[in-house]
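User: Working on a comparison across species. This one is ABC transporter permease from Actinophytocola xanthii. Can you predict its structure so I can line it up against the others?
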Amino acid sequence: MTNSIRAEWTKFRTVRGWVIGLLTAIPLTVLIGLLGPLGSSFDCAGPNGAQCRGNTPPIGPDGTPVFDTFYFVHRTLTGDGSVTARVGALRDAEPWAKAGLLLKEGTTSGSRYAAVLLTGGHGVRMQYDFTEDIAGPSPDEDRQWLRLTREGTTLTGETSSDGRRWSTVGTVRLDFGERVELGMFVSSPQHLETSNTFGGRLDRGAPTVATTSFDQVRTTGAAAEDWRGTAVGIDPAREHEVGFTDDGGDLTITGTGDIAPIPASAGSLGKTAENALVGAFAGLVAVLVVAALFATSEYRRGIIRTSFTANPRRGQLLAAKAVVVGGLSFVVGAVSSALALPLVERAELAEGFFQHPTTWLTELRLVLGTGLLFAVAAVLAVALGMFLRRGALTVTAVVVGVVLPYLLAVASVLPTGPAEVLVTVTPAAAFAIQQSVEEYPQVAASYTPADGYFPLSPTGGLVVLCGYAAVAVVLAAIATRRRDA
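Assistant: Here's the predicted structure for ABC transporter permease from Actinophytocola xanthii:
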């Protein structure tokens, strides 16, 4: 086997066109990735020509870009304490409109918080630090009692239908400063409607407000002072839409906005790691062409008989070709992505876009995963080439099977349903290995392939491609043994 691999490596490196073609995948991946930020610009102006608010969103405690806009009625709490209130139902509100009790490290957007809350359509929840969400029971009554307690670093959210029998929604440990703000809040996210058609997608959204009541409010540990109202993160042009009234301790609060992580979405100012790898499809095309020609050129030139004579074990010849092209393609894919990630991200930041953070482990998975995507796809091309024996036919088959479904899915050419099917059942499922964004159940957003969300996990998508490659290798092995050269 070693001699076969050495012989195939010698064949490959002696054909300059194959070497150049494979190396072309690297600049293709990087340069197409750079086209997005270098060809993009945006202007930002507020009412009456005034400069609008910055395009960089607040950053949560873990570095995640977040929404942090709501109306907050609060008092200062030093040390331990609690707040209890009976909260009215959110009628005719967005499903993720929220009203509840909140403890927050100041009133700056992005600061640490914990909340127990009632939603418009998802029951009682305990949420903290934007990304964390704990589901509680669905309310039995129109009004629901809530209680939020701080004891040292322990925050406990509780709910009750009658104010006497309490059940715990969640308990978390968070490190706050000695002084925090404690009180009640209301938020209501943007209403989003998405229309998917053949040829494009239309997202329509509009801001919303929600109003509800808080009565029988009790606090322990908080300063005995009047309630203060703060429009946290709300555009000054909309502050007249929110506020609160205090009728002898019974409060009515109107709020807008959301307290949640910002999901990635197509066309937004937030960029993800996979945005930097958008050119990988072009690099993969170059790899597939070279792999297909490497497998079929000996048939076209009529010298495959010589190879079979030198190595009568035809399956071994197929394996050697797959090892050589697969190994080289892995290196090319890994190098391409390792270069594209920092270069494209730097260009995006220079153009004013903000980055959804990724850990170094995630970036390592993207680099190695792109290498595996290139390698397994190249093996598929080699196997199909040995089976079909025609270069043009093989190139067409692998590009249509691997790259075209991906482009149709992520370019919003197809509605969401067919797009998700394509990147589930075709070899293009392997592009899921490049997904770095997280889907948040507590945020209503468009989670589609066009936004970077694949129906399969990164590993699951790669397994689909491996399955196709394995079937192709088996068919090619059978064909090379049974057919004449």
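For your comparison, note: Residues 265 and 451 are 5 Å apart (CA to CA).

User: Helpful, thanks.
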